[in-house]
Design brief:
Helices cover 53% and strands 7% of the residues. It has 189 residues and is an alpha/beta fold. It has a domain at 5-133: 5'-nuclease (Rossmann fold, 3-Layer(aba) Sandwich). Helix 6 (117-120) links the parallel strand 3 and strand 4 (126-128).
């Protein structure tokens, strides 16, 4: 284990391929992944709004699986920190509050502009794009990250994906550096 904590923001849990990869990484015990019930509520609410073909029960099951497969993932008792925090988007204060409460080192998010260095530094937290986050993991523990990618790809049944298709999917998830890095290990994916 690399001995750090990452808080997943709702925006990185919204797209299923990225959520799945982040979950496969979380269960690898390479680091401690954390989130909150409010973060779950946000990604699920947005996904149901944008995808009327999905049913709340399906996403409730995904939520349940996430919570039951990652030990100590749910951050609680952070709400009292929210009023004292200042961010460009006040609606994101709950994410920073959860990161502080969890002792997180990073917030994995696409919304870097909403988590400026100046607002996070005093709490010892850094906002990191998921592509940078996964590439850093790949550089530090390539076998573990490749095993997570391999598990995810092999679990895809409807439809199954070749290694190239899987890596193309990661690129479409705004993970171009990750896809490029994993291509060097294509024979084990």
């Amino acid at each position: 284990m690399l001995n750090f904590t990452a808080l997943y923001d709702a925006c990185v849990l919204y797209p299923a391929p990225l959520r799945d990869f982040l979950m496969h990484l979380a269960i690898s015990d390479l680091f401690q992944a954390r989130w909150t019930a409010a973060i779950h509520d946000e990604w699920i609410r947005n996904l149901l709004r944008d995808r009327p073909d999905l049913k709340p029960e399906q996403l409730a099951r995904t939520r349940e699986l996430m919570d039951s497969n990652v030990m100590d993932c749910l951050v609680t008792n952070y709400e009292n920190l929210i009023p004292s925090l200042s961010l460009p988007d006040p609606d994101d204060r709950h994410v920073l509050a959860a990161a502080i409460q969890a002792g997180a080192d990073v917030i994995v998010t696409f919304n870097l502009v909403d988590f400026p260095v100046s607002a996070l530094a005093k709490y010892g937290v850094e906002a990191v794009h998921p592509d940078v986050f996964i590439c850093d993991l790949l550089n530090q523990a390539p076998a573990v990250v490749c095993a997570a990618a391999n598990r995810q790809r092999r679990n895809l049944k409807n439809p199954p994906q070749s290694v190239d298709q899987f890596l193309d999917t990661l690129e479409r998830q705004l993970l171009p550096r990750t896809a490029t890095g994993l291509r060097t290990f294509a024979e084990i994916l």
